[in-house]
Amino acid sequence: MNRSEIIDTAKALGLSPNKKLGQNFLCDAGTIGKILGAVGVTGTDSVLEIGPGLGALTEGLLERAGSVTAVEIDAGFVRYLSGRFAEEKKLRIIHGDFIRIAPSGVFTRAVSNLPYYCSSEVLFKLAAEYRIPSVYVMLQKEMAERIVARPGAPQYGALSVSLGMYYRARSLFSIRPECFYPRPDVVSIFIELSARDDLRLDVDGLNLFHLLVKSAFWGRRKTLAKALADSPHIDLDRAMVLGILREMGIDEKIRGENMSVAEYTILTARLQEAIRAAN
Questions:
Q1: Average pLDDT, the chain
Q2: How far apart are CA 166 and CA 164, in angstroms?
């Protein structure tokens, strides 16, 4: 659908984009084709689409995928999609908030245009509960840059590391505001998240990992050892942390924003061993 078709369709249905839900619909055929090409769906794929809206991507996904499960929070758009794709046997439409429901199924790819207000919640739910091999999302530029940032970059932070535990992220291309209706105030970036197959921490280890990361970045200008020792989120002995950093061959004065995901993972495992030994 182009901009005029979206406006006419929404008007005919008595619907309008909900600013609170961050609804901005793709209206540029070239961008839609570029996204579908990047996602690379085939007949063997079971796709989870979060927030299909008026079905700009849904149509192309159905042409390529073995099945598509579309989760839409807006009842009006659910009614529209149910009518538009009434004959599609490969499509399952679920009315609900993805953050609060748990669509059943094993999915090989996920696709979404994520609004800023719930981007991180959706991504962490995908990471922790679904472990979908390939996730493709449109995000506001600021959020995307934080996710793909590398150690030492200004945008590198707790989000980069925490999500990096589950996925390797890379930026694919930017999407101009005029490719959406309504026109957003910011540039969007389309990114790919590829699930890591080397997740080495157990449940307790993952909990400790996230506490470490949260603690490391709450005191951003502090050394890692001091940030962890002073953290209100976790109780760690500074000498223990320094000892493990030395064993890892890491400078004792390193700051959290200069540690890689792999280093945080090793640090977590070593701390977990030390804590268990002490108890």
A1: 94
A2: 5
Q: Which residues are CB-contacts of 67 (< 8 A; sequence separation ≥ 6)?
A: 45, 46, 47, 90, 91, 92
Q: Could you give the CA distance from residue 71 to residue 53 in angstroms, rounded to a whole number?
A: 9
pLDDT one-digit tens code per residue, 18-72: 777 778 899 999 999 999 999 999 999 999 999 999 999 999 999 999 999 999 9
pLDDT digits (tens, 9 = 90+) for 254-278: 999 999 999 999 999 999 999 888 8
In angstroms, what is the C-alpha Rg of the chain? 21
> Domain total for the chain?
2
Using the 3D structure, point to which of 195, 220, 239 is the last residue of a domain.
Answer: 195
User: Phi/psi of residue 193, each to 5°?
Assistant: -115, 120
The percent of residues in the chain predicted with pLDDT above 90, rounded, is 84
For residues 77 and 187, membership in a common domain is answered with yes
Domain check: are 161 and 226 in the same one? Answer: no
Domain CATH number, residue 213 = 1.10.8.100
**Do 155 and 273 belong together in one domain?**
no
Give the helix ranges, DSSP H, for 167-260: 203-218, 224-230, 238-247
Which domain does 140 fall in, by range? 3-195
- Can you name the residues that pair with 47 across neighbouring β-strands? 68, 109
Q: What is this structure's pTM?
A: 0.94
